Amino acid sequence: MKLIRTEDAVGHVLCHDITQIIKGVTKDAVFRKGHIVTEEDIPVLLSVGKENLYVWEKEVGMLHENEAAEILREISQGEHMHPSEVKEGKIELIADCDGVLKINGEKLRAVNALGEMMIASRHGNFPVKKGDKIAGTRVIPLVIEEEKMNRAKEVAGKEPIFQILPYEHKKVGIVTTGSEVYHGRIQDTFTPVIVDKVTEYGAEIEGHEICDDNPEMIEDAIHDLLRRGCNMILCTGGMSVDPDDRTPLAIKNVTGNVVSYGAPVLPGAMFLLAYYGGDLPVMGLPGCVMYAKRTVFDLVLPRIMAGEILTKENLDLLGEGGLCLNCPTCTFPNCGFGKCGSR
């Protein structure tokens, strides 16, 4: 850094905060370290007694924090988000739509491991709403080696660290199973819960069938809903290991492609995920979805609604963080449930 006359400082970058003290009114930085001095700033600087300033002296191979922050933004920002203005080497990313936040955790860790720069975010694989802050990036020192920022670009590669997957419009078919419901012995209290959850993500209910525990009847109901244009099928009931619970068999017979029957999540261990034709989700929902505040369905549904094709590995990874603590006051998603990292 170098010391220059304040009148000659236009276009230069301050190397320290400039504090303004007005008795009984304020004592705060009127200009922050890293501020680029403008013509309009000169009278203010002189009024606080700064006739000389320490400014950053441009060196070959060094970048100002704001220049470097733009590089962090470039490697971080994916589709459906926009950046805040750069300030003191910091840029934030804001969601432009509702959807699911996807994070390349390996790249995120690699960039943070370089030192003198950081990227912090909310958890991946969880819903975000338009206007939500999803990540913040910052360069730590006032100046940083250009070579170091080039390394950040190398480890990040061509694909951005963050993406938002917008929700797709889904036409949902619901198959309610159980002879007790089919014969009217009890009221169907499961379907209203499902309707509330899927419509929260913009889905529409295209059809609803009620079946007894006959697997052929359940198969026929699923096929009928598929013919009516449903592109997501939810089967409720009959998902335990009791001999007369035949819903998993029916789903398997229709799809021939069961990703997993069982998930390492409580509540929700008896969850079943399958795909018809390779990309149309058919799910078997255990009874806990009807009465528990949050279950495996709440972890999987947003990702399905965003068009993700989930694998068994995706479900296996839910084990870390997959235990709901049934808190007296539910704060989901602002809690540890489902927070297994961006993998």
From TrEMBL:
Keyword entries, A-Z: Magnesium, Metal-binding, Molybdenum, Molybdenum cofactor biosynthesis, Transferase
Q: Which cofactor does it need?
A: Mg(2+)
Q: Its biological function?
A: Catalyzes the insertion of molybdate into adenylated molybdopterin with the concomitant release of AMP.
Which reaction does this chain catalyze? adenylyl-molybdopterin + molybdate = Mo-molybdopterin + AMP + H(+)
One Pfam family it belongs to: MoCF_biosynth
State the species of origin: Dorea ammoniilytica
* Family to which the UniProt record says this protein belongs: Belongs to the MoeA family.
Name the PANTHER family for this protein: MOLYBDOPTERIN BIOSYNTHESIS PROTEIN, MOLYBDOPTERIN MOLYBDENUMTRANSFERASE
**Pathway per the UniProt entry:** Cofactor biosynthesis; molybdopterin biosynthesis
* E.C. number(s) listed in UniProt: 2.10.1.1
Ranges of residues in domain MoaB/Mog? 173-306
Q: Which domain of life is it from?
A: Bacteria
The name this protein goes by in its record: Molybdopterin molybdenumtransferase
